Amino acid sequence: MTNHAWVKEFPAAITVCDSKGIILEMNDKAAESFQEQGGQKLIGTNLLECHPEDARLKLERLMKTRKLNVYTVEKHGARKLIYQSPWYDGGEYSGFVEISLVIPEQIPHIVRDG
What we know:
Layout: E1 13-18, E2 23-26, H1 28-33, H2 53-65, E3 69-75, E4 78-89, E5 92-103
Antiparallel strand pairs: 1-2, 1-5, 3-4, 4-5
């Protein structure tokens, strides 16, 4: 059996929802990031209800099309990489994972051609 305990304290916020948007898991960083909205108490609620209409519509579209969504954002002076991806269990679509990671202002870009 694989131990996934490392995810709990990983320094990126990780939130997992099912195919209907119900939050299944949040690591410590995600719970901290959403503390004002309830933190760990958000598990079992629908993440679509936590977003304003424009963001909710975008999330609904992503979940319907099962498309990857990656972007950067600046919030409270911190730059973050947001990575939203569908996840699968045994090849069957099961929901979305969002990883939010604080990134430095300048990031080296390295090209490795083998």
